[in-house]
Design brief:
By secondary structure, this protein is of the alpha/beta class. It has 2 domains: about 130 residues, Leucine Dehydrogenase, chain A, domain 1 (Rossmann fold, 3-Layer(aba) Sandwich), CATH 3.40.50; about 140 residues, Rossmann fold, CATH 3.40.50. The strands form 2 sheets. The chain has a 6-stranded mixed beta sheet with strand order 2-1-3-5-6-4, sandwiched between helices. A 6-stranded parallel beta sheet has the order 9-8-7-10-11-12, sandwiched between helices. The longest helix has 17 residues. About 45% of the residues are buried.
Length: about 290
């Protein structure tokens, strides 16, 4: 029950209507007996700073930041955790009095999910160069993936991320390659950190097939997710017999890290996972 004492945690992004974050966090609050509530808000880009300031003034516990604001959110932080500062992206904000502290739990989420893959060599093709891609790149580097091939629709951004990797997470080798091309050497893992597959952001015709046509591809991690369904990239991978994991797993694992920041408690991960599964079944999406 929501009372006058209930504390607020928010999700800020555009879009947010598909998000399972409210489902899993509210289930976690109930499981742990916390008088807290998690709500999602669609925010215009020019209003992100106002939204964060409003939450702080209202005494909110914190907020999660999702696409397309993870890099922009840096501008409104009073303090940054080391990894958020290093990757230049924030996905979790904790309000501490008059200060907003920015964190990046995407790194933890991707690192834990990467351990689900067993491939012949730890080389990855990373698609994207935004906030999610920067966190994924850091996670890949920390987990010992080398080389990392970076590809983005705007090639200069891919080059910048490749250049930044050594500074961000001591990755010895990363290189940008043209959008839509395969790496020039065997690369078993493909990581999609773009927004392609989310809502109306469709993949260019034939591109998933082209990316996955290389016989050396053994795994796909798509950070995008569709509640109760699979993304077009994951579907294409499964049809080819490639082990594929969707973004729900990363969402769950980064959400558990965010829960610890919001509450100081360990997250009830099993309850969070089951809440997402139950929601998709109840809503006819599973």
């Amino acid at each position: 029950m929501i009372t006058a004492a209930t504390r607020l945690v928010a999700l800020l992004g555009d879009p947010v209507g598909h998000s399972l974050s409210p489902v899993m966090h509210n289930a976690a609050f109930r499981e742990t007996g916390l008088d807290m509530c998690y709500l999602a808000f669609e925010v215009n880009p020019q209003d992100l700073g106002k939204a964060l300031e409003g939450l702080k003034c209202l005494g909110a516990v914190g907020a999660n930041i999702t696409v397309p604001f993870k890099e922009r959110a840096l501008l409104y932080m009073d303090r940054l955790a080391p990894e958020a500062d290093a990757v230049g992206a924030v996905n979790t904000v904790v309000f501490e009095g008059k200060h907003a502290s920015g964190h990046n739990t995407d790194i933890d989420g991707v690192r834990e999910t990467l351990r689900m893959f067993r491939v012949s060599r730890k080389s990855a093709l990373l698609l994207g160069a935004g906030g999610a891609a920067r966190a994924a790149a850091c996670a890949l580097g920390k987990e010992g993936w080398d080389p990392i091939w970076v590809s983005n629709r705007h090639h200069k951004r891919a080059e910048q991320l490749a250049d930044d990797l050594a500074r961000i997470c001591n990755t010895p080798f990363a290189v940008a390659i043209p959008w839509g091309e395969r790496p020039p050497e065997p690369c078993p893992l493909v990581v999609n950190a773009t927004s392609l597959g989310l809502g109306e952001a469709e993949w260019p015709e034939g591109l998933p097939g082209k990316i996955l046509s290389d016989e050396n591809v053994e795994g796909v991690l798509d950070l995008v997710y569709t509640p109760g369904a699979v993304t077009s990239l994951v579907e294409a991978a499964i049809k080819r017999g490639i082990h594929a994991v969707g973004g729900e797993e990363v969402l769950l694992r980064q959400g558990a890290s965010a829960f610890r920041l919001f509450t100081g408690m360990e997250a009830p991960v099993d309850r969070m996972r089951s809440s997402m599964r139950d929601w998709t079944v109840r809503n006819g999406r599973g």
